[in-house]
Structure formats: structure tokens, C-alpha cells
Amino acid sequence: MLPVDHIAPLPKKASMEQGACLGIPGMTAHRAVNVAGPIGGRTVMVQGAAGAVGLCAVALARRAGARVIGSVRSASDKPTGLNSGAHEVVLSDSELIACVRTVAPEGVDHIVEVAFGANIQADVELLKQGDPSRAMPRIMPLRRSRSGKWCSKTFVCSFWAATISQRKQKPTRRGT
Predict the structure, then answer these.
(1) What is d(CA 53, CA 32) in angstroms, rounded to the nearest whole number?
(2) Domains of the chain
């Protein structure tokens, strides 16, 4: 149950079937954007920014105060990524790394990933390197299915890809 002030009516042009499907991509995107801590003031890349999870992730990251770079598969998807709130949208092609480097020369702090197996090399290349006092760069992929394949229809798990500059922090206990 939710408090009434947390509920919004469906737009008139949305069907009940569409409304029933909103939760899963939204919850998945929320977890991928926020699971590693605050992102305000950071650069977040959303791979697949024109998809259901990507659209939600772009909007949530922008609302949280991040600079958002979205990647899309085709030029016709660029307006979709921009309209959802991305500051920049680049094509997910052989020029992806170069294009992201032109808008984020130092790299990105956080990546929301929907095709982990396909994008891991680019993701690692794009993660910001350097100052270990900054929060650990991270990639938040969707978890593996039982078959061992990366599954885009499941919730995010805590998978961390860290750079060489990662500094492990010890958890603290409340009251100590």
C-alpha cells in the first residue's frame, strides 16, 4: 500500500495494460541508478537510453542531479533519449567511446547497463579513473539469468566493476 500522495493517475492515452507494465522498468531503473549511492553532480551513462529501463533511468538520474549521457542504437532514437532528460545522446556503435570522450573527457562515474555482455569493454574503458577519494566508479548491470546469460527482464543485482584506483571502505556500524 502506498500513501495517496505517492500515486499518480495514468495519462488518458495510456491503457491499463501499459500502466500495469510501468512498475518493472521503473523499479529496475531506480535500483540501477541509486543502488551505489547519491549521483548528484556525477556523470552517469545510461546504455540503452531509448528502451523501457533506459528511459526511466535517464529521467531518474537527471532528477537526482546527475549529468546524463545516453546511448542509443539508431539516430532515430536520439530524440527519445533527449526528451527523457539526457544531456547528450550518442550512438552505440564503433565510435561510442570516442563520442562519449568528447562530452566527458575524464570518463563517467556510473553506468546503467542493459546489455552487459555486449558493452563490457566499452563500459570499462569509459569509467573515470584517478582520485581514489572519489566514490568508486561502478557499472550496474542487470543480473544473470539461470541460463548464465545477461537478462534484461530481471532486477539489478549488486555487481561492482571497479577501477585500479578503487579504495575499499570498511562498513560502519551505527552507534559506534
Answers:
(1) 9
(2) 25-140 (3.40.50.720)
